[in-house]
Amino acid sequence: MPLKSSIKERIPVGLRRNIRELQREIFFAVRRRRRVKAQHPAFLIVAPSYTHKSAGIRALYRLCYHLNRAGYSAAMAPLNSRIDALPDWPVAVHNGPAAHSIVVYPESVSGNPLKAKKVVRWTLNTPGLIGGDTFYSDDEMVFVCNPMQLPLVSKSVSKPLTHDRVLAVGMIDPAYIYPDPGLEKTLDCYFTHKGAAIRVRWPLPNEASLKKIEDVTPTMASLGDVLRQTRTLYSYDHKSTILKEAVICGCRVLVVHEDGRLLDPETCGCVENNVFWGDGFRGNYVRRYHDSTFVDAFICELTTRWQIPRIEPRAEDNALPYR
């Protein structure tokens, strides 16, 4: 039950935030293990178990959520034998054959393991960089996750991709990632992830005095808490969503370039090996996280090849307790 405004004003902001998170947990608890019934969803999205530590995995689960919210039945399909962890928003899991579903594979999956007749390849990273194929069949509909990827991924298909093949999903959760100017910053941290080779070649001289952020952020809530207390985040990975999350939380961010220089990723001008910053991301990341309207353009492009069945959006999803 929502708190009355007079009561809310007397509750500290931090405690109110914890209450909101608890409400979200209770709301979703009964839905986390929901499974799809006998009928096949219109979309199957192939992914491993959920983890907040991978922006690509977060994107796959958010796509599933937004498709359902927009009225298109969608479910997650296990990359391996099963999905053991789900996010705190409602998604279903389908165990079984693809049948007539449109199957969405990330670029890290090689081939078509579900033997689907309709395949969407969503390149969340450079094709082949962290697994998967480096060239895609014309039978697949290939999408990129931001317009900056179009020239690079176009090298992996027979014809250049256009802006109709951009499938961009908001991934920065404003329930956890937000600035708090009044909080004292007492930490300096470093982040490795996909930058292990650069870390070996160009180790930070002050690394011993820094916190390894992967070791102190087991949850999304802890990631936000740590970033808001961080003065400077050094990153060996030049292409990770945490760079944007850190900037939003008020960190100074420096990346270790492949030649050893320390660069500001927001202004360095690097294109292929960088996150897509976009104009006004600080002001629009909240809206983008909750906005499902991108689904319309995605469906429009898919219907140039396939028919897409639509159902009515679920009332329960339209009433989710968003922040």
Distance between the termini: 14 Å
* Main β sheet profile: 5 strands, parallel
The stretches of 5 or more residues where confidence is low (pLDDT under 50) are: 1-8, 27-38, 315-323
The helicity comes to 25-40%
Order of helices and strands: HHEHEEEEHEHEHEHEEHHH
- By DSSP (H or I, 4+ residues per run), the number of helices equals 10
Q: What is the averaged pLDDT score?
A: 86
Record the strand order, biggest sheet: 2-1-3-4-5
Helix and strand content put the structural class at alpha/beta
- Strand-residue fraction? 5-15%
Q: What's the shape?
A: globular
> What's the gyration radius in Å?
20 Å
How would you describe what is shown here?
- The protein is built from ten helices and ten strands.
- By secondary structure, the chain is an alpha/beta fold.
- It has two domains: 156 residues, Rossmann fold (3-Layer(aba) Sandwich), CATH 3.40.50; 97 residues.
- The N terminus and C terminus are likely disordered.
